[in-house]
Design a protein that fits this description.
Length: 181
């Protein structure tokens, strides 16, 4: 299993290859999104360390302490080392997905997004470092994936097509199960 620091270096390498500037705040939020999507897509974590709910959103303490000297500046790493190779193909695919979805979003906006999501909101207590359980990440990101699938279905339709929802679907849980199938 990857350490959070090894994972963060791979994420930074992939970000640099795309020309993305990553600050410590943005790194923490991207790691949170990677962990959530990895759990949903592959039923495994990207890194072993727990994510905690801090005042400015989800944080991996070891990574925070390591990159803290950069403050709000772009993190610079040695790009002559292939950090991604250590992570494996599945994890690299998760990183690519998250960078495609969230890489261009500014750090403060990512922070605000995480503050509106159930995993952080349900465990955050001011001044505490409460862990965010993986099951909360799974619940949040399964819902996000379901919404994406619905939009993909709708986007693929012609303007004059109608969706026929089976009559036995009477609530949102049944609708989500139907979309997932």
């Amino acid at each position: 299993m990857n350490s959070s620091l090894d994972f963060s270096l791979g994420l930074l390498q992939a970000s640099a290859a795309r020309g993305l500037d990553i600050t410590p705040l943005k790194l923490q939020k991207l790691m949170y999104y990677c962990q959530g999507y990895s759990l949903v897509l592959f039923n495994e974590v990207c890194f072993s360390e727990e994510i905690q709910a801090w005042d400015h959103g989800p944080v991996c303490c070891t990574v925070y302490n390591h990159f803290k000297p950069f403050r709000s500046s772009t993190i610079k790493i040695d790009l002559s080392i292939d950090y991604l190779a250590k992570l494996g193909e599945k994890i690299t695919r998760v990183i690519d997905f998250v960078l495609n979805e969230y890489g261009a979003i500014p750090a403060v906006q990512l922070r605000n997004m995480t503050h509106n999501e159930l995993p952080w909101k349900s465990v955050y207590q001011k001044g505490e470092s409460n862990p965010i359980p993986c099951d909360l990440l799974v619940s949040e990101f399964q819902a996000v994936q379901t919404n994406r699938r619905l939009f993909d279905v709708l986007d693929s339709m012609q303007d004059d097509e109608d969706i026929e929802i089976p009559v036995e679907i009477t609530n949102s849980d049944q609708f989500i199960a139907w979309i997932r199938s």
